[in-house]
Amino acid sequence: MKRIYLAGPDVFREDSITWGKYLQTVCEEHGLTGLYPLDNDIAPRHNPQETAHAIAQANMQMIRQADGVVANLEPFRGIEPDSGTVFEVGVAIALGKPVWVYFPHTGDLLQQVPDIDAGRCAQGWLVEDFGLPRNLMLACQWHGYSPTVEEAIAEMAQLLG
After folding, report:
1. Considering only CA atoms, which of 2, 1, 4 is closest in space to residue 149?
2. Which helix (H) or strand (E) covers residue 70, if one does?
């Protein structure tokens, strides 16, 4: 059975364990094995930094073992996706693994960023205008986009055949 890494800020949900089981069930319905980061059983280390390092290494190993990645790129703590998830997408792309993403579509970046004046956000940064729903470095690399996780998993199953 093909394995997919389930990337996203979902591990921060209040119901993260239950949600992870749900995602894995959806994967199984499509003939896939879902690798969910919280499946890693990481014992606390001597200090928080060592624990964080162990978590990061375990997640990297899951990505290496996966045949593809399904990533939640919904806005997280603002208008941008979770930076850890974006990193995981980059790792998967660098390893040559297909990535399918999902998030509720809310238009291109210009439509998503509030208080734009002459193409610049309130902080004065230029907002790229390529008609893409995420930064071009993400949107030009993923294999596809779906508005829901269920659709994304189904598409990844088709892609991995």
Report:
1. 4
2. strand 68-72
Neighbours of 7 (CB within 10 A): 31
CA distance 72 to 23: 12
Look up residue 56 and give its two tokens. Answer: 């990061």
**Cβ-count burial of 101 within 10 angstroms (0-12 exposed, 13-18 middle, 19+ buried)?**
buried
> What's the CA gap between 9 and 48, in Å, rounded?
19
Angle CA 98–144–19, to nearest 5? 80
Q: What are the pLDDT digits (tens) for 15-41?
A: 999 999 999 999 999 999 999 999 998
pTM of the model: 0.95
Alpha helices (H) along the chain = 16-29, 48-65, 83-94, 109-112, 136-139, 149-160
Q: How far is CA 46 from the centre of its chain?
A: 29
Tokens 């004065």, residue? 124
